[in-house]
Write a structure and sequence with these properties.
The complex is a heterotrimer of chains A (137), B (224) and C (399).
Chain A lengths: L5 H19 L15 H23 L4 H20 L14 H36 L1
Helix pairs in contact in A: 1-2, 1-4, 2-3, 3-4
Chain B lengths: L2 E11 L7 E12 L4 E5 L6 H8 L7 E6 L2 E2 L5 H11 E4 L11 H12 L6 H10 L15 H13 L5 E5 L7 H16 L3 E5 L11 E6 L2 E4 L1
Parallel strand pairs in B: 3-8, 3-9, 6-7, 7-8
Antiparallel strand pairs in B: 1-2, 1-4, 4-5, 9-10
Helix pairs in contact in B: 3-5, 4-5
Chain C lengths: L5 H8 L1 H39 L3 E5 L8 H4 L10 E2 L1 H7 L4 E11 L11 E5 L8 H7 L8 E4 L10 E4 L2 E8 L10 E5 H13 L13 E2 L1 E6 L5 H11 L3 E5 H44 L1 H10 L3 H31 L3 H8 L8 H31 L3 H7 L1
Parallel strand pairs in C: 4-8, 5-7
Antiparallel strand pairs in C: 1-10, 1-11, 2-9, 3-4, 3-10, 5-8, 6-7
Helix pairs in contact in C: 1-10, 2-8, 2-10, 2-12, 8-12, 9-13, 10-12
The chains are: A mainly alpha (137), B alpha/beta (224), C alpha+beta (399).
């Protein structure tokens, strides 16, 4: 395992939070009485999948020492995190009433975590590019 | 530029069996001659460094005056004295005195940065680093330097603004023989160009490079 | 390199040392701004509630008197309906002291469409209404046609601009602006549309009022009292002259909420003040510890010719930079956790909660930023003064 830095740990924690947090804590509305799911449930599943993908990529970074590849992964996080933020409510519509759980808890939580992932990835990407440039000079 | 001290003394409050104060420097007169290396030697705790800092305007006097071309240093305001120290004095302090947030080059340029922009001094700073033999460490951080390297950085830093008077407090501590000779030779060269050099040291080799030697013992200064 | 770049170089040079000041500055601004934003939102919500109530007196059927609170009138979550004869409107309008009187009809939808909750449906008379109409006019300038509905801000606007109730689709004329009250969850229509809704409900077996009398029934009458008349007196008069009704003063409805809000505001203000004080103390301690650790560094600067003033400026500049970034981060975090979650906060508190206007938020941000930065800098000022007084010669000699 290569040297692990703070950004890697923060990104891993946030990615896991996005996946498992959305699944277990700030999940969407529960199933209806007849056992069927409302459409927000599929948004929850999509966010979980994106969170898992981000977690796997972050873990992969622990074993990569090439700064350019790491920077590339950080760059991909920018798109993934934006996608995660847009899934609930925009890519996949949520319930009709905005005071339902999917609107009041799931969506804001997903948006906040996605923004944090975006910011950390952006900072990491810029720092890595700058240090790569410095090393070349 | 003549630096003169008239009846200067320094006491510290330190209660002992016989007295409430400890006299670090007993009342003395002193002249720092231009164009010469003046050495003050003596045991540790004899008051030589205290005297150096009093003469450099960095330690308040308990009595007397320090005159620079008839200007009483300690009658100046702090702003005036600080500016004077920056432009006329180069102090090489004892111990590890690097600014840890800055690189070696930035440390050397620090006296320039206090009152101006360092843009025009970068070449000179690199030349000084080369003179003291650490030009390859220009971009290194203080944490990467040995004690001797940091001492040489401090020497370069003291010379960046081409001061009229150099105050060197144990400048050859942590240096090997070769570097010790190089530093002493450099100070001698500086003095020969018309500057004044006050060298406080217990390095025995220094006597070969000094024009005037004083000995300090228990706060009393005697010319050798 | 200039002396002015030294503060930032010092901050970046010792990140772990800078981090402690940054973190406490962040906590300080997070609590100040977070507290201020929540308080401001509660006050804005209460103001919105009072504006939406609008009326001085709300007249309801006597048996519905226990269902009446600012909650139910403004529908904080209860889907309710009750009725009284429409003839009460004329009786009340004729009472001395009554300036205006306007009817409303309540009903609720079934668990229709895609969601598992029912909606409160409110019928009002656009001609005589003075509580809902002013709010409607902000988002909808036209005439509300029969068959058209207006939806509250918390009802999702569908792409086809239609909503299904009682097996029939109704055209959405506009979505209304947020009020921070339960009205955001409601659907509004004119009286004719409400009767059409009742007919549609009846067709699928849901009866709200007896079909024979449905167009002769109303749920509430909003009353505005003339200037110079005592509201209590008019309310008593209404109850005496119009049988089987209860005249509820809206002031008494909101006073409970106002009291809760006042209590909650005091708690938030006290907690914020405590956090501010603790952070100030901690910042003072940390600043002094850090400065103590850096005595030699400052002595070296003095030796190089830095004046006491420059040293003070250096310390204060470092403090300013760290506190500014810490404060901005704290405010950003507060934003990140309050704004997206404001609906959750509203449900948890059970009080009207409406985020203040953009302009007011900017004012709050600036005010909190100034307070946080000043607090942070004040905590460093004693240390800055102390360090400027050092005897450089002594410190360097001590090694």
């Amino acid at each position: 395992m290569k040297k692990i830095n703070l950004q890697d740990i923060i990104l891993l924690v946030l990615s896991l939070l996005l996946a498992f947090g959305t699944e277990f804590f700030f999940h969407a509305c529960p199933a209806k009485d007849d056992g069927s799911w409302m459409r927000c449930h599929w948004a929850e599943n999509a966010v979980f999948a994106i969170g898992i993908a981000l977690s796997v990529l972050t873990l992969a970074r622990f074993f990569i020492s090439d700064q350019k590849i790491k920077a590339g992964i950080s760059f991909s996080f920018l798109s993934f995190s934006l996608l995660a933020a847009f899934v609930p409510g925009i890519v996949i519509p949520l319930c009709m009433m905005k005071d339902m759980r999917c609107h009041t808890i799931m969506r804001p939580a997903v948006v906040v975590i996605s923004i944090l992932i975006f910011i950390v990835s952006l900072v990491d990407f810029i720092v890595k590019i700058k240090s790569e440039k410095k090393a070349r000079d | 530029m003549i630096l003169k001290a008239e009846n200067i003394s320094k006491k510290y409050y330190r209660p002992t069996k016989n007295a409430s104060h400890f006299e670090a420097v007993k009342p003395l007169d002193f002249i720092l001659e231009e164009g010469k290396v003046t050495e003050i030697t003596g045991r540790s705790g004899s008051g030589k460094s205290t005297l150096l800092y009093m003469l450099a305007g960095l330690l308040k006097l308990n009595s007397g005056k320090v005159l620079l071309d008839d200007q009483d240093l300690y009658s100046l305001t702090d702003d005036q004295l600080s500016l004077l120290r920056n432009q006329k004095f180069g102090v090489i302090p004892q111990g590890q005195t690097g600014l840890f947030a800055l690189t070696v080059l930035e440390n050397v340029l620090a006296p320039v940065a206090i009152y101006g922009d360092t843009k025009n001094y970068e070449e000179k700073a690199k030349k000084l680093l080369s003179l003291v033999g650490i030009e390859n460490l220009a971009d290194s951080k203080m944490s990467e330097l040995s004690g001797g390297e940091m001492r040489r950085m401090a020497i370069a830093r003291a010379l960046i603004l081409d001061p009229d008077i150099i105050f060197a407090d144990e400048p050859t501590d942590d240096l090997d023989d070769e570097n010790t000779k190089a530093v002493l030779a450099l100070l001698q060269k500086i003095a020969q160009s018309g500057k004044s050099v006050l060298l406080v040291t217990h390095e025995s080799m220094a006597e070969q490079y000094a024009d005037t030697i004083y000995r300090m013992d228990s706060g009393k200064l005697d010319k050798k | 390199m200039k002396f002015s770049s030294l503060p930032v170089l010092n901050i970046l040079g010792k990140k772990s040392r800078s981090a402690s000041l940054f973190v406490f500055s962040l906590i300080l601004s997070l609590s100040i701004f977070g507290g201020a934003l929540i308080l401001s939102s509660l006050r804005t919500g209460l103001k919105s509630l009072e504006m939406r109530l609008g009326a001085d007196i709300v007249v309801v059927p006597y048996e519905a008197r226990t269902k009446v609170s600012a909650d139910t009138i403004l529908n904080q979550g209860n889907r309710t309906f009750f009725y009284m004869p429409k003839s009460n409107l004329d009786k009340i309008s004729a009472i001395e002291g009554v300036e205006k009187a306007s009817p409303q009809v309540y009903m609720c939808s079934m668990n229709a469409g895609c969601c598992s909750v029912s909606l409160q449906l409110i019928g009002f008379d656009p001609e005589s209404d003075f509580t809902i109409q002013p709010w409607v006019e902000k988002s909808f300038k036209g005439k509300l046609s029969d068959g058209d509905i207006l939806i509250g801000s918390k009802v999702t606007l569908s792409s086809n601009r239609k909503l299904k109730f009682f097996d029939r689709e109704w055209n959405i004329a506009a979505q209304l602006s947020e009020t921070g009250t339960g009205l955001d969850n409601a659907v509004f229509a004119n009286m004719n549309t409400i009767h059409l809704l009742m007919e549609a409900a009846d067709k699928i077996g849901w009866s709200f009022a007896d079909k024979k009398y449905s167009d002769k029934m109303i749920s509430t009458i909003m009353v505005k009292v003339m200037d110079g008349y005592d509201i209590d007196n008019v309310a008593s008069l209404i109850q005496r002259k119009v049988r089987k009704t209860q005249a509820v003063k809206t002031k008494s409805m909101t006073s409970g909420i106002a009291q809760s809000l006042s209590g909650l505001s005091k708690i938030i203000a006290i907690l914020t003040a405590i956090v501010w004080f603790l952070c100030l103390l901690i910042l003072i301690v940390i600043s002094n510890l850090i400065i103590g650790e850096r005595k030699k560094e400052f002595a070296v600067l003095r030796i190089m010719g830095a004046s006491q003033k420059k040293l003070r400026h250096l310390v204060m500049a470092e403090s300013f930079v760290l506190n500014t970034f810490g404060s901005l981060s704290g405010i950003a975090l507060a934003f990140l956790f309050i704004v997206p979650f404001h609906n959750l906060i509203k449900s948890a508190m059970g009080l009207p909660f409406l985020l203040p206007s953009f302009l007011w938020m900017i004012i709050l941000v600036l005010a909190c930023l100034v307070i946080s930065i000043l607090t942070g800098c004040a905590s460093s000022s004693f240390a800055a003064h102390k360090i400027a007084q050092i005897d450089a010669g002594i410190i360097v000699r001590e090694g």
